[in-house]
């Protein structure tokens, strides 16, 4: 209205705030897990932790980038957004080498063979049962896992794959 006498004008201001929603996929977590409220143009940091035997695949959203300290920091926030972390299970290889003067076959889930070498890639924690069958006229002389002899076995069970393995199967005449 019209000013007809002395008066006081009071103005109130508030900073715009936004919600940054953290979202973690399977095999890991993101902290803080609760969505923080962030003032306009501020940044927020997140710690991303994969479960044991898993790796960080990606961290995306809100212009997030990895800092030197190992945390993920958003760009200055100008609206509600989501920071999403994706994880993958670590993988390990199992390599089978055939040697000696005989021959035979090996079967196991996820195995493929080419010549005297077989192998497969497995997620951390996977189980592998390997069956060894000597060809007619031959036998298993020895089996070595990572260079250590386990004798002339025809079945090997790796109960929990948490590292790379090299398995050597030595065949010989029956």
Short description:
Helices cover 0% and strands 56% of the residues.
The pLDDT mean sits at 93
Structural class based on helices, strands and sheet pairing? mainly beta
User: Which percent range describes the beta-strand content?
Assistant: over 45%
Order of helices and strands: EEEEEEEEEEEEEEEEE
Task: Record keyword descriptors for this entry.
174 residues; mainly beta; six-stranded mixed β-sheet; four-stranded mixed β-sheet; 0% helix
Provide the fold topology:
Layout: E1 17-24, E2 28-31, E3 37-39, E4 45-50, E5 54-60, E6 65-66, E7 72-73, E8 81-89, E9 91-100, E10 104-107, E11 112-114, E12 117-123, E13 128-134, E14 138-145, E15 148-151, E16 155-158, E17 165-173
Parallel strand pairs: 1-8, 9-17
Antiparallel strand pairs: 1-3, 2-4, 4-7, 5-8, 6-7, 9-12, 10-13, 11-12, 13-16, 14-15, 14-17
Structure, explained:
- With 174 residues, the chain is mostly beta strands.
- The chain is 0% helix and 56% strand.
- The protein contains no helices and 17 strands.
- The protein has a six-stranded mixed β-sheet with strand order 11-12-9-17-14-15, with no helix packed on it. A four-stranded mixed β-sheet has the order 3-1-8-5, with no helix packed on it. Strands 2-4-7-6 form a four-stranded antiparallel β-sheet, with no helix packed on it.
- A hairpin with a 5-residue loop joins strand 6 (65-66) and strand 7.
- The radius of gyration is 30 Å and the shape is rod-shaped.
- The chain starts with 16 loop residues before the first strand and ends with a strand.
């Amino acid at each position: 209205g019209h000013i007809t006498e002395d008066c006081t004008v009071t103005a109130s201001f508030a900073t715009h705030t936004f919600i940054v929603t953290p979202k973690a996929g399977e095999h890991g977590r993101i902290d803080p897990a609760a969505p923080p409220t962030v003032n306009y143009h501020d940044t927020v940091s997140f710690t991303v932790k994969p479960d044991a035997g898993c790796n960080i695949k990606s961290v995306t959203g809100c212009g997030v980038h990895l800092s030197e300290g190992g945390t993920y920091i958003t760009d200055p926030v100008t609206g509600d957004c989501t920071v999403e972390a994706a994880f993958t299970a670590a993988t390990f290889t199992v390599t089978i080498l055939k040697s000696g003067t005989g021959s035979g076959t090996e079967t196991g889930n996820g195995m493929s063979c080419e010549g005297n070498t077989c192998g497969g890639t497995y997620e951390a924690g996977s189980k592998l049962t390997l069956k060894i069958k000597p060809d007619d006229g031959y036998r298993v002389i020895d089996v070595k896992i990572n260079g250590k002899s386990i004798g002339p076995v025809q079945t090997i069970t790796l109960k929990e794959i948490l590292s790379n393995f090299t398995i050597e199967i030595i065949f010989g005449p029956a």
